[in-house]
């Protein structure tokens, strides 16, 4: 990966179908990953000759770039994931007898995906039905983060990515036991791509000219977004007012999600290619 | 898979971490998959010795059980996925020179995952932060559906799973060209499991007894759900009133999503194990 703002097109990342929806710029890919409330991470737990099934785990994480104080070069953006040290996924990259290590690979090959659904696209015919969405797929090698400073950086990053300023507004630093039972994995990006559909329903000329079709079938978009509701305090909560950093994330994400979903619902569909 | 209502626990499906969140009953798994606006499907495009990276594609689909009219036994529930016939994924299972066919596997090994995020769980310490979620992971062999009646069944099923009654309320039947460019894949289930977290924040005794922590840190849940907005008609739309089947799905899904996310936010956290 270079420091350019575009990811390279590789056979693995190149979008073949509906090329007009494909994007490779780092900013779009990063924004889709970082704003997703969940990431889906795929990997092979054992060598495919022992079990040919990849598996998927839902995980929390986001993009970050940690550069050690004495490093000569700035690090490229990578995806940081965190989880329990005892879980299968977090034990794999540091395991020298894992299938990936035995194959001499520079880490565990993983795929990280995030998808936002921004609307139901209802066309005249089922065939033209679709969704408005923003989807990112990233391939990379997973590495266990062993450097204490990088691990601190990643844990703060992931927590604040979910709710900005949350780390500083909770009980920190973590205890030694908490740090020991939490692991961080860094996925060094090998290839990445995104697909975005963001416009009104696309219908065929033949259907639009057929009175019996347009006179009967409703066509358009039902906008969709992730809604954050009123915070519900725990029974043990003793802070009476919902803190500013929590109120703000709810307000901002709701406004952004709703605005985007509604805006794109009226955008013109591109000519079919 | 038997016709029992529980999926068998296998090494592949057995949840090791946080066992109290694990469920294996078919009804829960099916409901998580069927109510998800998007499925994430993982597979190996080529033999892992040529490229060790699994990939993930976001896809539409749901559970169904098609039994041919002359069949002696009822079919087990499988996941049906649809997509463009020219896309890489839909060309793989019917390809006799694919790596899976060459290995003699009974189909392309895939993993299908769906995750609903039902809330942000804000604890006193970052370590106890979590999400409320319902997540299902299904492993199975993907087969290209070649039987015309089963394909019809699956396309109607997938369309009506997104918006009930939509198939009958749009221009059907599909044209020959539409049927030709649409492919259906059936994933015959080999193993499946789900994980559900549905309760308030869990905090450690030491933090709850520390005045400087409980006096400062807000703890509780921010409920989250998928919100469906007002339908936005396409410029070409000629049906003035939003049809009943569209209005109903919006109303029902919003009510269900909001109700669940809020209900579970007040549920007691189980004792830590």
From TrEMBL, chains A, B:
InterPro entries: Pyridox_Oxase-rel (IPR024747), Split_barrel_FMN-bd (IPR012349). Gene3D superfamilies: Electron Transport, Fmn-binding Protein, Chain A. It holds the Pfam family Pyridox_ox_2. This is FMN-binding split barrel. It comes from Cyclocybe aegerita.
């Amino acid at each position: 990966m270079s420091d350019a703002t575009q990811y390279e097109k590789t056979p693995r990342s190149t979008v073949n179908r509906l090329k007009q929806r494909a994007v490779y710029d780092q900013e779009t890919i990063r924004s889709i990953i970082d704003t997703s409330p969940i990431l889906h991470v795929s990997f092979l737990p054992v060598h495919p000759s022992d079990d040919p099934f990849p598996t998927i785990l839902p995980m929390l994480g986001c993009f970050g770039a940690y550069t050690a104080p004495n490093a000569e070069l700035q690090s490229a953006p990578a995806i940081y994931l965190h989880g329990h040290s005892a879980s299968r996924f977090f034990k794999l990259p540091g395991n020298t007898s894992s299938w990936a290590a035995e194959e001499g690979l520079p880490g565990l090959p993983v795929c990280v995906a995030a998808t936002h659904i921004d609307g139901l696209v209802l066309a005249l015919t089922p065939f033209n039905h679709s969704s408005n969405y923003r989807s990112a797929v990233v391939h990379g090698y997973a590495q266990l983060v062993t450097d204490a400073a990088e691990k601190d950086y990643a844990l703060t990053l992931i927590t604040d990515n979910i709710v900005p300023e949350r780390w500083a507004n909770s009980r920190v630093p973590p205890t030694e036991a908490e740090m020991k039972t939490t692991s961080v994995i860094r996925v060094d990006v090998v290839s990445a791509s995104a697909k975005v559909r963001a416009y009104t329903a696309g219908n065929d000329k033949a259907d639009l000219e057929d009175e019996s079709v347009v006179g009967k079938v409703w066509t358009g978009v039902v906008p969709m977004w992730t809604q954050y509701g009123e915070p519900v305090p725990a029974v043990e909560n003793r802070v009476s007012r919902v803190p500013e950093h929590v109120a703000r994330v709810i307000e901002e994400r709701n406004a952004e999600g709703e605005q985007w979903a509604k805006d794109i619902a009226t955008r013109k569909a591109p000519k079919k290619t």
